[in-house]
Amino acid sequence: MIEDELIKLWQSSSRQERVKFEKSKLMMDLHSSLDRLHRWWKYMERVNIISALLTIPPFIFAIFWAPFISMKIASALVIVWATYVGLRILPIKKVKPGNLESNYLDYLEKTKAYLIAQKKLLETSLNWATLTIYPIYLLFWVGVWEKPLARNLAVISFLALIGVGVYTFYSNKERVNNEILPNILKIDELISTLKE
Q1: Is 69 helix (H, G, I), strand (E, B) or coil?
Q2: How far apart are CA 194 and CA 196, in angstroms?
Q3: Predicted pLDDT of residue 11
Q4: Helix and strand numbers, DSSP H then E, in the chain
Q5: C-alpha span between 55 and 57 (Å, rounded)
Q6: What UniProt keywords apply to this chain's record, in alphabetical order (predicted)?
């Protein structure tokens, strides 16, 4: 019974009221989706910083106590790499829109720029995060390559590192395709609806 009344009410409403309803529905859907994405991004920022903070101390120790010069150089490079990767995600905060923008259209434009910056960072992470660690890792094991136990440990851990890189690449790609791009399309749709 209530459903029939709602249908009659919808049919009797003016076109302008229907457009307002569709705008508010689009806004609610977008906010729900963006809230989830913002929580994930904040989690990713924390994970990057904590990972860097956990990586640096053992390699500081390795700089002083590693038996080979190649290990010492690689340890210093790992510290630089971990710092860079840990901090690389932070500049995107500058693009994030505030809750109190001058109007909703400005908020949408800034949110779109924020999502595009996230998309670009995730799509390029293979270059600046994953591929840069592999040569450093190989340099670390050069000095002990003649020892069978060290060689086996190096090969196994290198394969694990490649596995982590592949997983990161595909999870970032999935995040971009399933969450960021659809939100950019929703924002575009909402912007065009608001401009009508």
Answers
A1: helix
A2: 5
A3: 54
A4: 7, 0
A5: 6
A6: Membrane, Transmembrane, Transmembrane helix
State the residue for tokens 């990713």: 44
Give, as one character, the DSSP assignment of residue 144.
Answer: G
Give residue 31's Cα distance to chain centre: 18
pTM of the model: 0.78
Contacts of 74 (CB under 8 A, 6+ apart): 136, 137, 139, 140
Give the count of beta carbons closer than 10 Å to the beta carbon of residue 88.
16
Range 30-37, long-range pairs (CB < 8 A, 24+ positions): 30/183, 30/186, 30/187, 30/190, 33/179, 33/182, 33/183, 33/186, 34/111, 34/183, 36/179, 37/115, 37/179, 37/180, 37/183
Residue 79: the pLDDT is 96
pLDDT at 193: 78
Mean local confidence (pLDDT), 27-55: 87
131-190, pLDDT tens digit by residue? 999 999 999 999 888 888 989 999 999 999 999 999 999 999 999 999 999 999 988 988
H or E element at residue 43: helix 15-65
Cβ-based burial of 86 (10 A; exposed 0-12, middle 13-18, buried ≥19): buried
Confidence at residue 6, expressed as pLDDT on a 0 to 100 scale: 45
User: What average pLDDT score do residues 74-95 get?
Assistant: 92
